[in-house]
């Protein structure tokens, strides 16, 4: 079930919210747990067993770690292995088999595996819990239903943000629901819905029209339009989903961490990763980077640790060499900036033109990365980037579409909206307390809700990119 669907907005969510608000607090967790299971089973009931098995494994694993210290390391190893085995099989098995076939010149029969939605996200949440118990940061949860609610809570179940157990432990047991939270949550949800439906979907139509063709079949200008459109699509798709998830969390009394903080205004790739997919970055930092030693053991080991983290970040996103190279691409610039001590450089005041050039540098790096990320294979990414650089031999006989095919007047308007919404121009809009400003914002949000609903009802393009990951 998609957040941006009529079924969710006008049937599922109102029913769950009504039941939640009219019942006693003691019933809130059972209602949310039941709703979360229905939400997940709605689209893929056959994979519900995998998620439930994940819950059972981590429930008993954590209890053993806490009560049997003599075997805690073994229990942690087995728990992590079982968690990752589901992820590796469903997400990477055919990728591994295909690469082994290339190495040994053998054609393996590929298995028709459909990856369960959200498995990357709920697996990392389960790992967060087991790691927190092992580190004695939290107590093992004795109530399996509370642990189940943490792992499969529907607002952030299928595409994050990745919520760490120690951040939400107390909220699972006790949380307050009031008008202010519900009001703010609804506003945040509408804001995210409009980002997804009105901006990301429109940018996705442009990007798909361009990326569906061979890179030598369109001009250098069109190649740049495609890469920029995809950059906006993936940002507003994922940021919009995170806003909706955070809004839904507030409606039900939860406070989730922010997942995006205007990453496209960054002046370095280090800053970009402090602002992009914050929950994933902080997860890798806490459970991988720091566990490997962080920056405490000299420059060489720091570089090694950063390389491992960004290699894993690329792999986490998907079973394709393009994702691996994308992770290495970002990791390379993170390491260069680490060597150059970019954090110390950022503390100093610089002339306007220096910050401007740094911003342009960052934009070029992440747009190049998104082309690699979006491409179906490395060869396509290479040719597309060569087109952007103006050094690809173009097949002008195949230039069968005019500029207006790729971008019409409405899409140009959405391009402008995407630029304005990717900077913190409207950052505190939904938090304004002035009466006139609040009324204006509420009317604007109602208009966005109406336009978003119309777009959904028309049955237009409406996928979520991060469902793939």
Brief descriptors of the model:
469 residues, mainly alpha, 2 domains, 69% helix, 0% strand
- The helicity comes to 55-70%
Determine the oligomeric state from the structure.
single chain
State mean pLDDT (0 to 100 scale).
Answer: 90
- Tally the structural domains: 2
* Overall body shape: globular
The span between the termini is 16 Å
- Class per helix and strand makeup: mainly alpha
Instruction: Count the E strands.
Output: 0
Unreliable stretches, pLDDT < 50, 5 or more residues?
A: none
User: What kind of sheet is the major sheet?
Assistant: none
Order of helices and strands: HHHHHHHHHHHHHHHHHHH
Total helical segments: 19
> What is the radius of gyration?
23 Å
Compact description:
The chain is an all-alpha fold. Helix content is 69%, strand content 0%.
Notes on the protein architecture:
The chain folds into 2 domains: 6-175, no CATH class; 181-468, no CATH class. It has helices at residues 6-22, 28-43, 48-67, 72-104, 119-134, 144-152, 165-173, 179-211, 220-251, 269-275, 278-289, 299-317, 321-339, 342-347, 352-374, 378-389, 403-406, 409-421, 435-457. Helix 1 packs antiparallel against helix 2 (28-43), helix 3 (48-67) packs across helix 4 (72-104) and helix 8 packs antiparallel against helix 9. It is mainly alpha-helical and 469 residues long.
